[in-house]
Request: fold
Amino acid sequence: MSWKVRRSCAKCLAAIVQARPELLCDIYTRISPVLISRFKEREKSVRLDIFNTYSCILRQTAASKQAIVPEDEMQDTTPLAQLGTQVDAIVRGLEKQLYDKNDKTRQSCFSLLGELVTVLPGCLTSYVDILLPASTSLLVQKEQVVISR
Reply:
């Protein structure tokens, strides 16, 4: 399949997520696992659109968070509960991308992780051993570039 088709598909999914927030449960069941598996997309522009689409899903989840009644929060069918079950797959999918040579890819990864923490505070605490070295290497790399100038 052409990269243009994959990119258009990601943009179409983002539009659906924004237009139909009531479908979040179905989106987490059907679309989210597919998007997570495409985090390793070889084409940079498609990968960035996939990250953007997943960010749209997270933003819609954050917006719907206020609409959840406290007793519904514990059910497995809420978007928050479904997102909670996919945190491991998200971090594992982003792990390699955090070391990518492309700055935009790394920036999108950290942005997506930031939105994830906004929606599910504390969800990345068990992944510090994965995320900290990536953050540190990025800071050291940037520091070396500044020093060499």
